[in-house]
Description:
463 residues, alpha/beta, six-stranded mixed β-sheet, 19% strand, globular
Amino acid sequence: MSNDQMTKIYVLDTxxxxxxxxxxxxxxxxxxxxxxxxxxxxxxxxDRKKDVSRDARIAIRALEEALKDATPEEIAExxxxxxxxxxxxxxGRLAIYPDHLLTNERVTLPGPENDNTIINAALHLxxxxxxxxxxxxxxxxxxxxxxxxxxxxxxxxxRTDQLISDLKYLSTGYAEIEGEFWSKVxxxxxxxxxxxxxxxxxxSALPPTLFxxxxxxxxxxxxxxxxxxxxxxxxxLKDLGYDRMMxxxxxxxxxxxxxxxxxxxALLDTNIDLCLLTGPxxxxxxxxxxxxxxxxxxxxxxxxxxxxxxxxxxxxxxIGFLPGTEExxxxxxxxxxxxxxxxxxxxxxxxxSSTRYIIEKANIQFKSVNFMRGRSIQKSIVILDExxxxxxxxxxxxxxxxxxxxxxxxxxxxAQIDSNYLSPLTSGLTYIxxxxxxxxxxxxxxIAGVMRSRLASFAEKNL
Length: 463
């Protein structure tokens, strides 16, 4: 049997269980080993006054559920994971590795560091279980480098929630058609109802990959539409009109390019419950989201309030020490929203008082992500800024808060990730863009081009 056909042994680092507490159930027929030092680290984290402590407690409870009623010998040897009660496809074994029994002669990396102990345990398993492949799984890039340098043959990131292999494959939410759209269409059935026109065209005339709410436009600027239905033969397109889209406005601002026009269409569409905006710094994501939100709350009265929140890596530690109410504590983190509000009212005679009036009139609430859990938010617009720093499970927590008549707008720039363990491919934003791309209640728009200033535009391209 070749190495590739053998069942593998995966050694998990602590950050994998904090990233996804049930991660040990995602390795199918392969065996999972958890070093004793990982349990000690989870124990140290579970009592901290931080958001991560919750994940540590869930991981400990999940491990206890998987290993209950097993003898010490069985735990060291490996307990079949199919005994675990919930639904999962894992048929391998789960074992706790007693790394505290490693003697000095069998230690490769010296020192008391926990990372070194985990690497030593993986190296020891690699030697003991040869030729069975042993893989160390960690989200810590430095630990991956250390393990490779110490002699670990296979070291990987946790890829179960990684849906694409390269960021260039990430859905932009639109497709550009070369030349003129109508010259490529041989047959078309059009229906008009009120002000809306829907064209049914052959699938062969359009790009091969299509999904619901994907925008289509041509280079000749003669056609702009949105996919509302598709099958193997035909596609239904809602005609939006290139010039009509460019002429739309919300709260006094109009799109500066067609990408912003598509974003504005998705933001103002009440049939879209989840709007995902990606793009570089200065492309106008936050400004457009806020302008559309104010338009729909104050002008049209469709929603009752605006809730603004964002992920802040160190907020759990620092928010308690800032003075004031939750809104006042969040103010330093939500400077982008304040700047956008200021910009939208820059021509007002008394800018400060009109901004204050709008915050009250639109019932704008600034909330911390940590306090969103357990809520049910009705008839509101929720703007989640900087969500490239969130994991898929954190975003799931926020998205599942949305009640009836609530619209969620997620903005993020995958080039500006501050989290220690996330990369553009493993970011929660990447994950939900891929997961929601063919859902009729969501739309994605990647806003290309920097509109902030020529200085910002040059810096984005050349620095």
